Amino acid sequence: MISKKRALIYSVILVIATVICTNIFQLALGNRVIISKDLYKTYSKYDKLLGLENVIEGEYYQEVSENDLIDGALKGLFEGLNDPYSQYYTADEFQTLKEQTSGSFVGIGVYIGVNSENDKITIISPIEGSPADKAGIKSGDIVVKVDGQSIDSKTVDEVIKHIKGKENTKVNLTVERNGKELSFDITRKTIVTKSVSSEVKDNNIGYLRITSFDENTYKEFKENLNDLQSKNIEGLVIDLRDNPGGLLDVCVDIADDLIGKGTIVYTKDNSGNKEYYKSDANEVDMPMAVLINGGSASASEILTAALVDNGKAIAIGETSFGKGLVQSVKGLKDGTGYKLTTAQYFTPNDDYINGKGIKPKIEEKDENEQLKSALEYIKQEIK
């Protein structure tokens, strides 16, 4: 027999490790709990964890919160993967994560990721018009301190949590840019993101910018595309520069409307099982170009590759960020949750872009020249 406290911790570990547990025999007997012999053998390896918890509770110089210790242990379980994209979330943290895809949150308005080349926390992109954008934060800035505290890539979600806060309060970001450290005091505001905008360029070329892939993006995309088509455009430029990605299903829906019958993307899990995302025959039948840069990541790269590999568009700009990993996000009954990298994704042409990105057909570093090049390409294709 083992103590009720130890059985509780075993059960917590079991729930997180397997999410759903079945066929587990537990019997309460006074202050003791009887569990199956097999279950005890499986989880006795956590005796060290429990022993150290007892040491902390007995000898630490301040009062200890058992819930904080359990949360810390669960976070450590995911940190042991050494994967910056996998994370256990407390209830508050998980609520923040959900806000990030809802289109509204309080913060400074930046998308943050870990650069696979240098393993540093990097600004993928500031949200246009956000406090961070107005303060001068730029894509590619390496975050080195938050409110004077040094950070590292293993604490990316803690960094995001710290950057967020109550509206009208300030946070200080120290970033590295071109070998120099710059300091920014930024006031947090409610950020309501509009992820799609559009206009007509040069009389007959549609310009459609997508800044993220969140819950409202597909609806906004349809509205903007329909508006452009009603104005009789003959070509389309899709701007994904500084778009850090977002929801895979939203990206797939957009690609499905654009490319016609074909493969959008496929994923492969740790057993080698492949899942293909296909599009139907409906398409936008006109010349297209897609703009990308180092801030174009994840779902942006999926959409870019779908367009390019299916022969619907060419990519123009700079090599994209290079994130070819798929995360699953799950909520648990107590309001906590986790994000776990569960698969790799591959482009229709079987390319695995993680760590290397997508190289554009026309390379151009100047932002204004990128758009000019796209418009020139479309004009030539219309003739």
Q: What does it look like?
A:
The protein has a 6-stranded mixed sheet with strand order 13-14-15-18-19-22, sandwiched between helices. Strands 4, 16, 17, 20 and 21 form a 5-stranded antiparallel sheet that branches. A 4-stranded antiparallel sheet has the order 9-8-10-11. It folds into 3 domains: 63 residues, no CATH class; 88 residues, PDZ domain (Pdz3 Domain, Roll), CATH 2.30.42; 189 residues, Alpha-Beta Complex (2-enoyl-CoA Hydratase, Chain A, domain 1), CATH 3.90.226.10. About 4% of the residues have low confidence. The protein has 11 helices and 22 strands. With 383 residues, the protein is of the alpha+beta class.
Task: Give me the secondary-structure topology.
Layout: E1 2-3, H1 4-18, E2 26-29, E3 32-35, H2 37-43, H3 47-59, H4 66-79, E4 87-89, H5 91-100, E5 104-107, E6 110-115, E7 120-126, H6 131-135, E8 142-146, E9 149-150, H7 156-163, E10 170-177, E11 180-187, E12 189-192, E13 196-201, E14 205-210, H8 217-230, E15 235-239, H9 248-259, E16 262-268, E17 274-279, E18 288-292, H10 299-309, E19 313-317, E20 325-331, E21 337-346, E22 362-363, H11 367-382
Parallel strand pairs: 14-15, 15-18, 18-19, 19-22
Antiparallel strand pairs: 1-3, 2-3, 4-21, 5-12, 6-7, 8-9, 8-10, 10-11, 13-14, 16-17, 16-21, 20-21
Helix pairs in contact: 8-9, 9-10
